[in-house]
Automatic annotation (TrEMBL):
Any one GO CC term of the record: cytoplasm
InterPro entries: PBDC1-like_dom_sf, PBDC1_metazoa/fungi, Polysacc_synth_dom
Pfam families, A to Z: PBDC1 (PF04669)
Species the sequence originates in: Channa argus (Northern snakehead)
Source taxon at top rank: Eukaryota
Coiled-coil ranges (or none): none
Domain Polysaccharide biosynthesis: 36-160
Protein's name in the database: Protein PBDC1 Polysaccharide biosynthesis domain-containing protein 1
PANTHER family recorded: PROTEIN PBDC1
Signal peptide start and end residues: none
Length: 167
């Protein structure tokens, strides 16, 4: 019985190590490997879960998400003055027009924000949790730009207050 548990533990460690290695290779190395897609999905989901727990537990206005928060915030607000970050729509990120505005914004953070273009889950309605209907796939720098702004402008307070009132 003990041997089986040790073997499973070793496989778990080796599996995690293999997954970490696989996720560090360039995308071109894979084609459309469904195992890699599943690993990316799990990584994005885990990131979303950790972030939501964080804004539920700590007053979001005090959070610092990156060393570049001030630059991301000011550049985002200069570029997207009228974007409704409280309630995003898919076309705010995915329409052809939106992509043309987002591309130069995101690219200026290449080499500045680690993994700036990694896929990340983003909530459309900032007052709600991550659900299939309320989640969109975005790049990491889009996530940071929107969530830093939501935190600084008080839009994530609803999540924090809802969780802290249950305590």
């Amino acid at each position: 019985m003990m041997e089986e548990e040790e073997e499973e533990e070793e496989e778990g460690v080796e599996g995690a190590s293999a997954a970490a290695h696989a996720l560090s290779l360039p995308a071109e190395a894979y084609g459309n490997d469904p195992r890699v897609e599943a690993m990316w999905a799990m990584k994005a989901y885990n990131h979303a879960e950790v972030y939501f727990n964080l804004i539920s537990s700590v007053d979001p206005k005090f959070l610092k998400l990156t060393k570049q928060d001030d630059r991301i915030y000011s550049t985002f607000r200069e570029t997207f003055k009228d974007l409704d970050i409280k309630l995003l729509k898919e076309e705010d990120l995915k329409s052809d027009e939106a992509k043309e505005r987002w591309r130069p914004f995101c690219n200026q953070f290449e080499g500045v924000v680690e993994d700036f273009n990694y896929g990340t889950l983003l909530r459309l309605d900032c007052e709600k949790d991550y659900t299939e209907e309320n989640t969109i796939f975005a790049t990491r720098v889009q996530f940071f730009a929107i969530e830093i702004t939501r935190n600084r402008e008080g839009y994530n307070n609803t999540v924090f207050k809802a969780r802290s009132s249950k305590s």
